TrEMBL record:
Pfam families: DUF4291 (PF14124). PANTHER family: DUF4291 DOMAIN-CONTAINING PROTEIN (PTHR38567:SF1). It comes from the Bacteria. This is DUF4291 domain-containing protein. It comes from Fusobacterium periodonticum D10.
Length: 190
């Protein structure tokens, strides 16, 4: 039981995530309409587009970097979404890298065809620290579309939690610490 960090070997990359035996947590940020509906329904509703690719992120700090700590337009609400572990494993297994690498063992044209036909894209972005600075490892984002989005909404989601208030509290503490640091640096130099 309990939660721990998942290390997922995938082409020399590791996935760090909060998980237990049955679920893994991913993060997404939305506007009030989509978030309110998701909290009420326990899944996404009519304001969520089933026809667009949606990106899920297991990294809390990458999500904070991406949504600007819930301050970017249409990303003012941060949702922690617990999905079935076996679904996440299936998503990763069926993903195609969003950018071509010669070491994939296929030609660029074959890769383009795979991307075109895939329901899941995988992107490795620089992981961030609490201040938004890269920390020297990569963080996975998974883009799902088509049938995968429908399964995500209708089968894979176990629980949705609105963590926006927590996000804002953490941001406030970070700002206070930064201001205190600046204040004491100025005081020392005078």
């Amino acid at each position: 039981g309990g939660t721990r960090l998942m290390k997922y070997e995938e082409q020399e990359r590791k996935i760090y995530a909060k998980y237990d035996d049955k679920t893994i947590r991913v993060y997404q940020a939305y506007n009030d309409k989509i978030a309110d509906e998701a909290i009420k329904l326990g899944t996404f509703g009519e304001h969520f587009s089933l026809t667009r690719m949606t990106w899920i992120k297991p990294s809390f700090l990458w999500m904070m970097y991406r949504c600007g700590w819930a301050e970017k337009e249409n990303q003012e609400r941060v949702l922690a979404i617990d999905i079935k572990r076996e679904a996440f494993d299936e998503i990763v297994k069926n993903s195609v890298l969003s950018s071509y690498k010669p070491n994939l063992g296929i030609t660029e044209d074959e890769w383009k065809e795979e991307v075109k036909n895939s329901l899941v894209r995988c992107q490795w972005d620089p992981e961030r620290d609490i201040h938004g600075k890269p920390i020297g490892r990569r963080s996975i984002q998974l883009g799902i579309r088509g049938e995968a989005v429908k399964k995500y909404v209708n089968e894979w989601i176990v629980k949705i939690t609105d963590i926006t208030d927590d996000v804002k509290r953490i941001k406030k503490v970070l700002i206070m610490k930064l201001l205190k640091k600046i204040y004491y640096q100025k005081k020392k130099s005078t």
